[in-house]
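Handoff note, outgoing to incoming analyst
You'll be picking up this chain. Sequence as last confirmed:
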Amino acid sequence: MSFIKEFKVFAVRGNVVDLAIAVIIGGAFGRIVTSLVNDIIMPPIGLLIGGVDFKDLMFVLREAYLDPSGVEINAVTINYGNFIQFIIDFLIIAFVIFLAIRAMSRLQKKEEAKPVIPPAPSREEKLLEEIRDLLKNR
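Most recent structure output, in case you need it:
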C-alpha cells in the first residue's frame, strides 16, 4: 500500500476524527477554566491574602537595567505566581474530567445492569404455537 493511501485510511478512521474533536473541545474547555481561575477564583484569593495579584508574584534574579548603549535589558524573574495559577487550572480540569468519566461509568453500569427483555412473539409465532398446541392435544 502506498504511503498516501495508507495515510488516507488512517486520516478518515473514526478514532482520528474523534480525537481531533476532543482536542478542539479540550482547548476551548481549557480557555474556559483559565478564565474561571484568572477572573473568578484568583481575585478573591488574592484579596484574602492582602490584595496580591498572583501574576505579580515572582522572584527577581536580576533587575532590569540599561546597558552602556542605552538599551533596556529586561529583568530575569521566576514567575511562581503564574505557576500557582497553572496548577489551579490543572486541578480544576482534572477534577471536572474525573467527574465526567465517573458519571459516564455509572451510566454504563446502569445500562449493563438492566435485564434484557425478550421481544414479544410475532403474530406468526403465536399462530404457530397455537397450531403446535392443537396438534399435541390430538
